[in-house]
Amino acid sequence: MVPQFNQSNSSEEKIRYLNAIQTIDTSRHSLQHKQRIEQRSPNLIEERKTQRKRETMSWQTYVDEHLMCDIDGQHLTAAAILGQDGSVWAQSAAFPQFKPDEIAAIVKDFDEPGSLAPTGLFLGGTKYMVIQGEPGAVIRGKKGAGGVCVKKTNQALVLGVYEEPMTPGQCNMVVERLGDYLYEQGL
């Protein structure tokens, strides 16, 4: 309740009155500001939550501990998590230096499944023959005794490169499991 103000009020009462008015004005201003922001961007709250998740996670930890992990004594040769725009979120030390057009071609194949089949999948200048994947979700490539697996999430690409004795199935399991987890988290 706001105290009443008149000239006969004591100094303490005047100060309480001014503080109460200021609190009410600040609260009203904050509410109006919040409403204006929500009207301008209804998805702002979700965008902020996603941004906070991305900021609090260590992408390098995902690469080091989840992609480069030991599976039956084997591990990927190289791994990375990239934004769909080709920005590097995290990568292993041995991940090949790729060209932006290579990532653009991979993203295009997710949007237009089969577009990589005639030319192959290129990563760091190495050409992989595209083999069966999951249209719009997973692209797999093979070259000699090794290969690559790329899993698309809502915002990222999870990539794993392997060589024998690791098997294609082991690579796919590691990459796709992390990709599925990130997808479920909205990332």
From TrEMBL:
Q: Which UniProt keywords apply?
A: Actin-binding, Cytoplasm, Cytoskeleton
- A GO term from the CC aspect: cytoskeleton
For this chain, one GO molecular function annotation is: actin monomer binding
Source domain of life = Eukaryota
A Pfam family matched by this chain, by name?
Profilin
The family database entries (InterPro entries) matched by this protein are listed as: PFN, PFN_euk, PFN_sf
Q: Where in the cell is it found?
A: Cytoplasm, Cytoskeleton
Q: Which family does it belong to?
A: Belongs to the profilin family.
Q: What is this protein called?
A: Profilin
